[in-house]
Write a structure and sequence with these properties.
Structural class: mainly alpha
Number of helices: 6
Largest sheet: none
Radius of gyration: 13 Å
Shape: globular
Number of strands: 0
CATH topology: Serine Threonine Protein Phosphatase 5, Tetratricopeptide repeat
Distance between the termini: 40 Å
CATH class: Mainly Alpha
Order of helices and strands: HHHHHH
CATH superfamily: Tetratricopeptide repeat domain
Length: 110
């Protein structure tokens, strides 16, 4: 991959998701961090970072990342994720578990 490719951040987010769903949360964190560094305005990478940090037990860092994500995506909620993220039931449950641990709430105002 070219370091100048504008899609590299998306590839990193995809690698992060693959590690996350395999239960390799530290690897997921590594790739999510790289993805958000390359594409800081990409909410998907930040969502995966939040979930990965939380599942790795880094709750303070996960909550801090969630606070940043809420500024980037103020409408983020459990309902939004269920409606907008194209995961099947089992991956969705695991993803939401991590996001909830990071501080995601049912509605965007909480």
């Amino acid at each position: 991959m070219s370091p100048r490719d504008p899609l590299t951040g998306f590839f990193c987010a995809g690698l992060s998701a693959a590690h996350y769903f395999a239960g390799r949360y530290n690897e997921a964190i590594k790739w999510a961090r790289q993805g958000v560094q390359l594409r800081p305005g990409m909410p998907a990478g930040h969502r995966m970072l939040c979930a990965s940090l939380a599942q790795a037990g880094l709750l303070d860092e996960a909550r801090s990342a969630m606070a940043y994500l809420r500024k980037l995506q103020p409408t983020l909620s459990v309902a939004w994720v269920k409606q907008s993220v194209p995961y099947t039931a089992r991956p969705m449950a695991l993803f939401l578990d991590g996001l909830r641990k990071a501080g995601l709430t049912t509605d965007a105002k909480s």
